[in-house]
Amino acid sequence: MAEYGEKLAMLADMQNCSVTADFTILSDERTWSVHLFVLAMHSDVLKAMFRRNFKEAREFKLDWSEYHKDVVHAVVDYLYTFNYDTANLRTPFSQTPALHVHVAVLANKYNIRLLHRMAATKVESALEDECSPKDFADSAALAFDYEGPTETIKDVIVDMIVNDQSPGMSDELEATMLDYPELSLRVTKKLRTKALGNAVPAATPQRIRCCCDCGRIFSYVFSDNCTRIIAVAGTTLMTEGVQNAKFVDVGIVSDRKTTCKYSSLTVAIEAADTPNMIMQPSQSPKPSPSMDLDQDARDTLRTRFAEYYDNDAYSDFTIKCDSTEWKVHRFVMSIHSDVLKKCCQSAFKEAQAGNLDLSEHAVEEVEALVYFLYHWEYKLADDTSIFEDLCFHIDMALLADKYLVTGLVTVAKELFAFSLSDLEDDEELAELALKAYDSPDIIADMRSNIVNVVVEEKKMESKEVLQAMRTQGEFATDVALAMSKEIERSERSRRSSGGWADGW
């Protein structure tokens, strides 16, 4: 299947494709040519705006002049790349954490959830990277100017102040806290919680059944209310409040105590007949936010594109084959293929007519092509044989090559290689070889797959395969060359084994 990186690169390439752009975003005197399809893919709010005939939909433009042009640039960049980078903007504002706060606010307004999370993460990184006292205070003020959109950012700022990760209690920050009582209140509550958390309570005896053997603890260890197992070891036992609890080894007893990890807690167990217990939060590393965001970007790209398959919404082009038609999108066609992109340009008759006639191909092939444009894969019919499926993969590779849909060529070859081992009938293998060798060289990989099966499974003894080799000289030559290489490898291996034997 097409790799996620390849899909993302295809989408990013369309950012500068004004030929198929059908919408405009503007901020002050700057404009960006974009695609309705992309806007709707990211935001249900924008999708609703276009469907309900708002002024923006009628005028094919969206005015974001209330936001700084660098903020809009970052958002447009994200729409096509699932990320944004402000390093190349080279303006004083673009290098401040405040830009990311504004991005979060805009993303929240239009319900671009992944962008909202990403902006919050970028705020935190920017505040941690040698942020000046003024920039920190300005970002705090901006975050507390809003009610809902910046809740996550507010938490980050408060945590940094409480944990001494901010530039310090500067004059600017003190002034901001005076202007925003909510900030002062949150910091005060957090400091109080921190102070209480630092107090170490006395160890409390717990009702624990123990069985010690060779210095290892085999025991139940309970939380304070004796209802939740924190760590267990050994075998299966019966105790108060817990039935048939499974044991795992929790560690070796030292003179004073042993520390062992289980689940999300660290438990310090005193070495005594009736152990005491102190529970502390485990310091396991947090998963990287960027990893979560990356996975969400993959999911969004996959599911949002699939939503527009066989969907009239924003459709601006038609692909037809005989009497069957599919409503598609110029933007999607242009992502996958330079040839299909040309069909969408005004100089071509297909663009003027708004349709592409592929009636020279089978309906099933064209249907699979259209499905691939939105899913990066294609489906096979349920009632076909392995042989028919393999022939279909060859036809799909040829169709994809004709229109330079390189991702589809790759998928067809992968599916062919995967399915070929399931073909057991020698007559069908011979027929498949003739079809492959009567096709253009683009399917050379498929030919090699067939030759490898013939050699590895010794299909030369089959009369059907031999007849195909007599009929198709190139097939026979490739089989002979492959056999020669196989014999050469076997002899090298045999000589190598003989050498070892002589040495012994």
Automatic annotation (TrEMBL):
Tree of life domain: Eukaryota
Database matches in SMART domains: BTB (SM00225)
Domain BTB: residue ranges: 21-88, 315-382
InterPro entries xrefs: BTB/POZ_dom (IPR000210), SKP1/BTB/POZ_sf (IPR011333)
Protein's name according to its UniProt entry: BTB domain-containing protein
Species assigned in the record: Zymoseptoria brevis
Lineage: Eukaryota, Fungi, Dikarya, Ascomycota, Pezizomycotina
